Amino acid sequence: MEFLFNTNVQFFIAAYLVGGIPFGLLLAKKFAGVDIKASGSGSIGATNVLRVVKETNPSLAKKLGAATLALDAFKGILVLAVAYFTGLSEATLWGIAVLAVIGHCFSPYLGLEGGKGIATGMGVMMFMLPYETIIALIVWAVGAKTIRISSISSLTGVAALLISSFFIHPDMAHAPVVFIVFILYYKHIPNIIRLFKGEEKRVV
């Protein structure tokens, strides 16, 4: 058990545990009295919070959706920021980023179930690759405004981030970025299937 006293390992564990906090589930239960795991898409993310709570309280839905989005992004940044100011290596920071996303998508508090990972992924990417993340957010915003299908705007934004990273940082090791993108797309497989069937719902 000596490895648990290793600073890197401690931060890896913290990233997974903090990343796994299901803020959407907690906020919806506390303030709206609903279980978003049992409603809508069953996801713990901001989109499902907005969709489910909106059925009974539209004004509260927007507030809880925004709060979920912010907290899910922040939890990815939090451990990274502490690790950065502790002086840990860039390789360790990338490990923390990956584990924060894994924590959200496969939460230890929800039997390894979780959300789609977009907000947490964008949070860690904003810390690690700010320029690429800005590009991704612009692409996402345009898609959200025009197409109004959350999964399409999210996945196109993620793709834009990955592609732009090869142009902006051609010499960096892209494996962590590719892995995070893979997780995000993997978690969206049900959405992708519904898109091909024409059954994916618009955000209204």
From TrEMBL:
Asked whether the keyword Lipid biosynthesis is assigned, the reply is yes
Output the Gene Ontology cellular-component terms: plasma membrane
Q: Which UniProt keywords apply?
A: Cell membrane, Lipid biosynthesis, Lipid metabolism, Membrane, Phospholipid biosynthesis, Phospholipid metabolism, Transferase, Transmembrane, Transmembrane helix
What reaction does this enzyme carry out catalytically?
an acyl phosphate + sn-glycerol 3-phosphate = a 1-acyl-sn-glycero-3-phosphate + phosphate
Q: Which Pfam families match?
A: G3P_acyltransf
What the entry lists under InterPro entries is as follows: G3P_acylTferase_PlsY (IPR003811)
Q: What is its EC number?
A: 2.3.1.275
Please give, as recorded in its UniProt entry, the membrane topology of this protein. Multi-pass membrane protein
Question: What are this entry's molecular-function GO terms?
Answer: acyl-phosphate glycerol-3-phosphate acyltransferase activity
Which SMART domains does the record match to this protein?
G3P_acyltransf
Q: One of this protein's GO BP terms?
A: phospholipid biosynthetic process
Major site of localization recorded for this protein: membrane
Q: Which family does it belong to?
A: Belongs to the PlsY family.
What this protein is reported to do is described as:
Catalyzes the transfer of an acyl group from acyl-phosphate (acyl-PO(4)) to glycerol-3-phosphate (G3P) to form lysophosphatidic acid (LPA). This enzyme utilizes acyl-phosphate as fatty acyl donor, but not acyl-CoA or acyl-ACP.
Q: What is this protein called?
A: Glycerol-3-phosphate acyltransferase
Q: What is the lineage of its organism?
A: Bacteria, Pseudomonadati, Campylobacterota, Epsilonproteobacteria, Campylobacterales
